[in-house]
Each structure stands twice: as structure tokens, then as C-alpha cells.
Amino acid sequence: MDVQERLERQREFAGLRTRMPWAEQVRYEVLRSVVLFGQSPAERALETGVARSTLYHRVKRFHELGMVSLFVDADVARPTRPSLPPDMRQFIVDLQADNPAFRPNEIATICDLHFGRRPSPHTVQRPLRRARSPARTVHWACREVRCPLMTHRAGVCESSLKVGR
Questions:
Q1: Which end of the chain has fewer CB atoms within 10 angstroms, the N or the C?
Q2: Domain limits of the chain?
């Protein structure tokens, strides 16, 4: 196919695309000539402006799932990253609370011994970040006390500022 012919087909497809109200219809039109007439996906990608790898992936899904592949969004079907089981998350939080000096690498090693699964140190940090309370440690006189009403500001508790003025 020469350049002029390809540009003409791109213009045709752009015109068709404006008349298609649904995304599923656009997906089908992109696939139609590849699936029905055996056109090369690389050639069809040039005509439609869809990435070649995307078109190959969609053709493969169409052969596997049929028309359903047009309606199921690929992003929804993609699994999320694996998470830690709830009991392991709670174990990590409790272990850090009991032993604040433990580093994530050490906690990961203890998880391996306890559960038989060693999460990465970055994975260990995730439940620890979520478990931290929004309250901050107050000034030096109350260093170990966590109070949601009092937050540290220039070495003085906010509550004492409010009461004093």
C-alpha cells in the first residue's frame, strides 16, 4: 500500500469514527478487517492510528473471548498488585509496635520465619504507613503521649495556646 492510499484510508476511518457513538463500535471497526478479511494488524494499525502492539493484543483477545472482548475493558480485567493477607499485615503492625527499632528488612525476615513467606521490605512498609495514627507526638514534656487534640507547633501544645488565650 502506498502512502497516498494509506492517508486516504486514515481519512476514511477518521470520518467513520465521528459517526460511531460507542467505544465498542470503534473497537470492532478497528478489528473488523483484520478478523474478517485477514488484513495485517500492522497495516491496519497504520490506517487507524492504533498502536500495532495494542491491535495484536485486541485481535488475540477477540479470538479468545469473541464479541465479549469488545465490551470488557482490559484495565478492569487486569489484576491489582498482590497484597498481604490481613493476618500478616496485623502481625507486621503489632511487631513494629512492640519493637520500634526493627527495620523493614528484619520484619520481612521474621515474617518469613513465622508465615513461610518473605515480603519485600517495601511491602512491609505499606501496612506500617497505613497504621500510623494521624495524631502527632506533642512537645518534649509529653514526648511519649499521642493525643489527637494536641499537635506539636513550635514546642508548645495547640490546646495550651487555645486555653491560654
A1: C
A2: 3-77, 79-132, 135-165
